Amino acid sequence: MNENNQNKNQNETNTQVEIPRVTAxxxxxxxxxxxxxxxxxxxxxxxxxDCFRVRGLAVFNGKNGLFVxxxxxxxxxxxxxxxxxxxxxxxxxxxxxxxxxxxxxxxQSMALAQQYKNERHAKSNEEVPEAPxxxxxxxxxxxxxxxxxxxxxxxxxxxxxxxxGQMM
Length: 168
Description:
Layout: H1 2-14, E1 22-29, E2 40-48, E3 52-62, E4 65-69, E5 72-77, E6 80-85, H2 92-124, E7 164-167
Antiparallel strand pairs: 1-2, 1-7, 2-3, 3-4, 5-6
């Protein structure tokens, strides 16, 4: 019996877990162009295996390029303020799937925003002004008005074409 348990444990450690599909949606994009002012480039939500949603992920511009931060909450310990993950993946493979999906959605959103800006510029033959700076994500902000996707929290609009990044 002990030998059977040992074989079972060995098989469990050799078995790889299948990574579920991760779908990301950009919910806000930063119009501030100076990363020194605000290194956060966007916020996102993800849906895992079409059954679990996590909101509040952030895309940051760091020293080594873009990276994804999981949702955090502030915590104070001995007078020092730190941030603690609310939720996070426990495997490297799942972390990579989330990172890839969110960054793919961010890249698609940036491309669409630039395309939209270029089309507006071409139609008006005027200089396109810089988008106003905002401190917090606001649904329906004029910098996002007219873009072909929904930025509202909650249940997505069925007519909207969401910007999605998928990783299977």
